[in-house]
Task: structure prediction
Amino acid sequence: MNLLQSVGAVLCVSGPFLALGIVFIVVAVNRRRKAQASLSWPTAPGVVVSSEVKESVSTDEDGPSTSSYRPKIVYTYQAGGATYQSDRYSFGASSSNRRAAEQIVARYTPGMAVSVRYNPEKPAEAVLASEAGGFNVFLIVGIVLAVLGVMIACGAIVFVLLAGAGGAS
Result:
């Protein structure tokens, strides 16, 4: 295997880890930025239309299915003379734990008056809670994946260089 093929193999193995790590980090930072921005958004009175826990089931071919849960709180509000409807509780993952999702849903009963933060530039974009749910998890996973990708690349490069030096003598 020549040096170019070795570098290509290193990139094929380490590249996905690094790329996925960067994606997770960017998603985490964007969620945090959006949540921070929403703190300065104007508020409007709103009304809860419905409130329930939504379950998402993912099934693996080789293993059991896993469930994640999120609160789905539908609410209406008025901004700029128009009426809007949204179901965004917060930016990011609100919960994957059933009990935590149930606790959030219990705080929002249909017909209840709520304070809604909406984006003045895009009034259809709104949240009930100005937080970046799942920020720490996404950031940590992103950092771990990126570091793993760099470590795989460095280890493979050192291996290729040592193998090349050993073959040259």
Observations:
- Residues 3-38 form the longest helix (36 residues).
- Strands lie at 43-59, 65-79, 82-86, 91-92, 113-118, 126-127, 132-133.
- The radius of gyration is 23 Å.
